């Protein structure tokens, strides 16, 4: 979007809103083929891709917002909604499926009262089913991502997964 | 003396970092001067966390399942006292898991420290590229790979030398070598293990490939779900650059080659070459028609070669030991070794590397120890969503590209998911169709809509609403999807359905006509009942979320099937095994 499309100060405001993103855009905005990298950095900083963020990236790079949206929705990694402090990535790979990942999902959903893709009301957890974490010998597996780092939990049972979640909640 | 703690993703998931920290703490507390270092995954995932203690004369004692509470004893008796703790060490039986393998790709995994280039150099690392740059012409390298018979380990099994030669023959000075490290098959993790355990062998393989085809740059397209792999690759690349193995004028030969990492964003279809290239260019990962093949027009329309991690990690070994040495493993048409990821209902899950031509039975029973809880072996799923289920009756099939393809499955990237009598084959087909439906890029109608229709039919069948003619309809759709899809994803998506119909048609028929799931796995087709073993403890009734269980204290309880939601909570809570699933 060029300045002509909009006569207000929103572009300036957005620049002020996304100062942390500026170095990334400076590095990649003019490098062809960098859109996915830019979106990954944006999500790393803000946790998700907001409409404002997409518009801002569009203004700086000259890539149309529709195209950015198209790329963002194509890949499983990108989120358009904010997430909780802890992102539960529940593995739904083949080995996990065979070893009862559906049962673990049920236990998590019931315990936290959320469905796949949703965030708990207190903002502590978001649940995301993922294709495969590659720890198949420890199936069923989940990874919990937070600012403290990634922690993987294997050989889950209905009870152990609840215990893990309770421990994380206590720390939060 | 030194201590090495295995810290691949599996090890870390079982708490290896805590174990390593505990070793450091205990060693410091005892005032010992023994270094604690890191290694990758040795492949025996079921024994993690694994700790190797090397004595002063380099004799190895391997400790398994070392949780922090076991550390004190090992430090006191072995590190300080010099006497190994036999009861915590690996058993002779478990030693066979590794001993029966033939390790080429995994030669350094779980042995060297992946974060230290000196370790890799000490095991003849970067000697192959030195030999290539000092003694060989690009055609010689390609010839050596041709002699080895190396075929693509990512799934298709295309001869590697042919791809390299095609990229070399393409005109132009700007060429790219892309490593596909976007291991997308659910249930396969060999690439992760190589990236985490031996990143330098991949880098060396890429440099050799780059030289052979005249590429200027290498790109590793790595899954974002593998943060540890990306971290270790970055460390490895930095160290290689410092040593002058990567960058300008490598080994003073005048050959320039550098590598960068591009993190994938999660799309299975990006395993398809043209989709991967689109993704590298920052676009939606949609495949395009071939030709032109990437070897002619790939990344930014320049000649591009794409190889899988495992393929490239074989290359330094082949160059160093000679193509003929590699070809002596395996069979004539499928030479060399292949890494398989054993998982599912198996006793000893992990990574195994065996010569091609070994039978499925040898892999699952001799190495993997057979089926968990000694249940009956039913089938093994090979090749992920593009592959199929090989039934128990074909357990003596040799694992080669040709023989596995004959069964309707494929070798694929090497996932082997073992299933027992409790796994419903219709549900497996439904699971894979759900996956491919989600991952279809949507370009071809048959793939986009056809997989959805097939999934609907399979869901209907597993819900007990299957109709006469459903099997035939599935077969018709499957064949049309195969014909009407442009890329490998759509062309192979029906395979899990076709193979399960081929070998387990009776299960489909049971679901449709008898409304029965033999594996007792499809919720809609099972009922829970309470037997006379019930003591009337009321535990089940109290835990039933829908109050479907009634009965007086000390009397046999009854489940109201109209109310029951088949959650299985009663069965989990019953202490007398009085609840049965039928």
Task: Determine the structural class of chain B based on helices, strands and strand pairing.
Answer: alpha/beta
Write down the secondary-structure element order of chain A.
Answer: HHHHHEHHEEEH
Largest β-sheet summary of chain B: 5 strands, mixed
Specify Rg of chain A, calculated over alpha carbons. 19 Å
Report the strand count of chain A. Answer: 4
Given as residue ranges, the uncertain stretches of chain B (5+ residues, pLDDT < 50) are none
Largest sheet of chain A: 4 strands, mixed
Strand content of chain B: 5-15%
Beta-sheet strand percentage of chain A? 5-15%
User: Rg of chain B, please?
Assistant: 26 Å
Oligomer: heterodimer
Give me the secondary-structure category of chain A.
Answer: alpha+beta
- For the residues shown, what is the average pLDDT of chain B? 94
DSSP helix count of chain B? 23
Largest interface, counted by CB within 8 Å of the partner chain's CB: A-B, 41 and 56 residues
Mean pLDDT of chain A: 91
The end-to-end span of chain B amounts to 58 Å
What are its keywords?
heterodimer, A: 172 residues, alpha+beta, 13% strand, elongated, B: 582 residues, alpha/beta, 5-stranded mixed sheet
Walk me through what this model shows:
The complex is a heterodimer of chains A (172) and B (582). With 172 residues, chain A is α+β, with helices and mostly antiparallel strands. Helix content of chain A is 46%, strand content 13%. A four-stranded mixed sheet of chain A has the order 2-1-3-4, with helices on one face. In chain A, helix 7 packs across helix 8 (158-171). The longest helix of chain B is centred in the C-terminal third of the chain and has 20 residues, at 495-514. The N and C termini of chain B lie far apart (58 Å). Chain B has a five-stranded mixed sheet with strand order 7-8-6-5-9. Chain B has a five-stranded mixed sheet with strand order 11-10-14-12-13. Chain B is an alpha/beta fold. Chain B is built from 23 helices and 18 strands. At the A-B interface, helix 3, helix 5, helix 6 and strand 4 of A face helix 1, strand 10, strand 14 and helix 17 of B.
């Amino acid at each position: 979007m060029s300045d002509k499309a909009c006569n207000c100060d929103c572009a300036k405001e957005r620049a002020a809103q996304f100062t942390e993103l500026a170095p990334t855009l400076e590095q990649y905005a003019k490098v062809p083929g960098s859109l996915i990298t830019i979106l990954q950095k944006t999500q790393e900083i803000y946790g998700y891709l907001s409409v404002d963020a997409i518009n801002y990236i569009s203004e700086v790079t000259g890539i149309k917002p529709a195209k950015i949206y198209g790329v963002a929705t194509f890949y499983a990694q990108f989120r358009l909604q904010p997430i909780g402090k802890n992102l539960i990535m529940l593995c739904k790979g083949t080995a996990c499926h065979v070893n009862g990942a559906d049962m673990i999902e049920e236990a998590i959903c019931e315990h936290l009262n959320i469905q796949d893709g949703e965030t708990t009301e207190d903002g502590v957890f978001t649940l995301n089913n993922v294709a495969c974490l590659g720890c198949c010998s420890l199936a069923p597996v989940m990874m919990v991502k937070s600012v403290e780092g990634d922690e993987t939990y294997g050989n889950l049972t209905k009870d152990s997964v609840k215990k893990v979640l309770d421990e994380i909640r206590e720390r939060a | 003396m030194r201590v090495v703690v295995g810290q691949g993703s599996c090890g870390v998931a079982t708490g290896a970092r805590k174990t390593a920290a505990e070793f450091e703490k205990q060693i410091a507390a005892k005032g010992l001067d023994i270094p604690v270092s890191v290694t990758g995954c040795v492949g025996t995932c079921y024994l993690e966390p694994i700790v190797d203690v090397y004595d002063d004369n380099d004799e190895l004692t391997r400790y398994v399942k070392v949780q922090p509470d076991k550390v004190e004893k090992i430090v006191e008796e072995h590190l300080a006292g010099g006497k190994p703790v036999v009861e915590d060490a690996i058993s002779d039986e478990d030693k066979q898991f590794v001993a029966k393998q033939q390790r080429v790709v995994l030669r350094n995994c779980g042995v060297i420290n992946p974060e230290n280039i000196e370790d890799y150099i000490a095991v003849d690392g970067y000697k192959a590229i030195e030999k290539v740059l000092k003694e060989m012409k690009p055609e010689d390298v390609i010839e050596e790979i041709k002699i080895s018979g190396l075929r693509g380990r990512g799934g298709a099994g295309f001869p590697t030398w042919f791809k390299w030669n095609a990229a070399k023959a393409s005109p132009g000075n700007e060429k790219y070598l892309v490593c596909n490290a976007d291991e997308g098959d659910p249930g396969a993790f060999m690439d992760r293990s190589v990236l985490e355990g031996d990143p330098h062998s991949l880098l060396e393989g890429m440099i050799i490939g780059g030289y052979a085809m005249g590429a200027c740059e290498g790109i590793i397209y790595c899954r974002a779900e593998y943060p540890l792999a990306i971290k270790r690759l970055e460390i490895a690349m930095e160290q290689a650059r410092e040593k002058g193995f990567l960058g300008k004028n490598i080994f003073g030969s005048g050959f320039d080659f550098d590598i960068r990492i591009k993190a994938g964003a999660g799309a299975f279809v990006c395993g398809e070459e043209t989709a991967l290239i689109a993704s590298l260019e920052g676009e939606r990962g949609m495949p395009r028609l071939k030709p032109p093949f990437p070897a002619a027009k790939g990344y930014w329309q320049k000649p591009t070669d794409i190889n899988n991690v495992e393929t490239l990690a074989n290359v330094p070994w082949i160059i160093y030991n000679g193509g003929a040495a590699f070809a002596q493993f395996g069979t004539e048409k499928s030479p060399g070794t292949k890494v398989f990821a054993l998982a599912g209902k198996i006793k000893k899950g992990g990574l195994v590397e065996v010569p091609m031509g070994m039978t499925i039975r040898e892999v699952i029973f001799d190495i993997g120890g057979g089926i968990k809880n000694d249940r009956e072996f039913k089938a093994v799923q090979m090749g992920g969503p593009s592959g199929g289920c090989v039934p128990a009756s074909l357990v003596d099939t040799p694992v080669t590209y040709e023989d596995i393809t004959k069964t309707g499955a494929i070798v694929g990237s090497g996932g082997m998911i073992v299933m027992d009598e409790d796994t419903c084959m219709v549900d497996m087909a439904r699971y894979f169709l759900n996956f491919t439906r989600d991952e279809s890029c949507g370009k071809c109608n048959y793939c986009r809509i056809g997989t959805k229709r097939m999934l609907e039919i399979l869901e209907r069948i597993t819900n007990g609403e299957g109709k006469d003619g459903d099997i035939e309809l599935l077969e018709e759709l499957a064949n049309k999807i195969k014909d009407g899809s442009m890329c490998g994803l759509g062309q192979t998506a029906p395979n899990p359905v076709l193979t399960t119909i081929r070998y387990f048609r009776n299960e489909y028929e049971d679901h449709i006509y008898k409304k029965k799931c033999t594996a007792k796995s499809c919720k809609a087709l099972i009922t829970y009942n309470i037997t006379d073993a019930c003591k009337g403890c009321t535990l089940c009734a109290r835990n039933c979320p829908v109050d479907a269980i009634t009965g007086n204290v000390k009397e046999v309880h009854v489940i109201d099937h109209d109310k029951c939601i088949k959650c299985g909570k009663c069965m989990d809570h019953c202490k007398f095994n009085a609840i049965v699933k039928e």
